[in-house]
């Protein structure tokens, strides 16, 4: 395993970390996250070629700096690929060096002008550099994304925000209504978008405000498919008492591909049950990454003291490869 691969695994739950972005997961209380930092120099200092950065350092941010150094060297020697530029851009975002991230994504876009993987994060970091404004070049980039694929959830959400910044609620409603119908019926993400539409007087015609079913209730009412992943949890008695006030992430990811989860659930620790099912409805970006398209899957659980995906707040994590039976058992003890 290369250094970069080790680092990607180490920072699994630091992504997606677009400065303006969103984490789509059933049960996520705040699926859309907007950050407008007051200090653009926040975060770690820029990496120098003389820095000593151990690849196995326990701090993920230090590992990210090591990844930045390695990628910068590859690019300086012209030994890089398009995906290396995307990875470097993401790494810069992780250390809040948005200027370098924007420059890197511009280089990636020059190679593949119609790559959504370059267009979206570039629109993101340019907006952060402009104090959170999506009305300049970010707007044009988002428009380009939606011309390529009109159903990219993140682009639809951000375009709605851009239109609101331009005081055009009718146009914002068009994007958010389209986003509303992309999310599964009954999902919390759909309800969140419906509430946003209601706030600007553009609520969808059907009832969108039914109480959101907790994970256990949803499982009982959903029909099983051959893509469902059944997870049983053995929760130690001493652990059960520690779950109150925590957040639990249950996820499925590729064993060999992108470390970002393909599907995930998120809910309060005191609601953790002994049986959980991940289904196609839990896919984070179903228009681009689906459970059925991944041959080798790894299932995991992460328990954190915070509701976001900060590794520093992690209390427990366990992962297991998914067998052909699509049933796994995870022991939860900390």
Descriptive overview:
With 334 residues, the chain is of the alpha+beta class. The chain has 2 domains: 3-199, Tetratricopeptide repeat domain (Serine Threonine Protein Phosphatase 5, Tetratricopeptide repeat), CATH 1.25.40; 215-332, Immunoglobulin-like (Sandwich). It has 11 helices and 9 strands. The strands form 3 sheets. Strands 5-4-7-8 form a 4-stranded antiparallel beta sheet, with no helix packed on it. Helix 2 (60-76) packs antiparallel against helix 3, helix 3 runs antiparallel to helix 4 and helix 4 runs antiparallel to helix 5 (116-129).
Mean pLDDT: 75
Query: What count of domains describes the coordinates?
Result: 2
CATH topology name of the largest domain? Serine Threonine Protein Phosphatase 5, Tetratricopeptide repeat
Write down how many β-strands occur, each being a DSSP E stretch of 2 or more residues.
Answer: 9
Largest sheet: 4 strands, antiparallel
Residue runs with pLDDT of under 50 for 5 or more positions: 1-58, 207-223
- Helices and strands, in order, run as HEEHHHHHHHHHEHEEEEEE
Ends distance? 28 Å
The helix count comes to 11
The strand line-up of the biggest sheet is 5-4-7-8
Short description:
The chain is of the alpha+beta class. The chain has helices spanning 3-10, 60-76, 82-94, 98-111, 116-129, 137-148, 153-165, 169-182, 188-199, 215-221, 237-240, and strands spanning 20-22, 32-34, 229-235, 247-254, 263-268, 275-278, 297-304, 314-321, 327-332.
């Amino acid at each position: 395993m290369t250094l970069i691969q080790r680092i990607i695994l180490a920072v699994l739950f630091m992504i997606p970390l677009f400065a303006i972005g969103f984490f789509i997961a059933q049960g996520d209380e705040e699926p859309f996250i907007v950050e407008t930092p007051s200090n653009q120099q926040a975060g770690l200092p820029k990496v120098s070629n003389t820095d000593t950065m151990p690849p196995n350092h326990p701090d993920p941010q230090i590992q990210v700096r090591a990844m930045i150094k390695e990628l910068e060297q590859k690019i300086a020697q012209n030994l890089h690929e398009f995906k290396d530029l995307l990875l470097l851009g993401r790494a810069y975002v992780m250390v809040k060096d948005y200027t370098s991230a924007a420059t890197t994504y511009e280089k990636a876009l020059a190679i593949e002008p119609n790559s959504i993987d370059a267009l979206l994060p570039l629109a993101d970091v340019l907006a952060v550099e402009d104090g959170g404004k999506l009305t300049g070049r970010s707007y044009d980039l988002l428009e380009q994304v939606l011309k390529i694929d009109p159903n990219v959830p993140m682009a639809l959400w951000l375009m709605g925000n851009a239109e609101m910044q331009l005081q055009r609620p009718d146009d914002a409603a068009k994007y958010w209504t389209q986003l509303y119908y992309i999310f599964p019926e009954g999902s919390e993400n759909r309800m969140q978008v419906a509430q946003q539409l209601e706030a600007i007087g553009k609520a969808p015609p059907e009832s969108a405000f039914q109480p959101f079913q907790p994970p256990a209730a949803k499982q009982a009412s959903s029909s099983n498919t051959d893509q469902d992943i059944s997870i049983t949890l053995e929760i130690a008695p001493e652990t059960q008492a520690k779950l109150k006030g925590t957040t639990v992430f249950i996820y499925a990811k590729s064993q060999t591909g992108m470390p970002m989860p393909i599907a995930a659930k998120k809910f309060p620790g005191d609601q953790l049950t002994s049986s959980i099912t991940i289904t196609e409805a839990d896919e984070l970006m179903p228009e681009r990454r689906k459970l059925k398209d991944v041959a080798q899957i790894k299932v995991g659980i992460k328990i954190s003291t915070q509701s976001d995906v900060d590794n520093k707040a992690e209390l427990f994590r366990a992962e297991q490869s998914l067998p052909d039976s699509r049933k796994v058992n995870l022991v939860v003890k900390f």
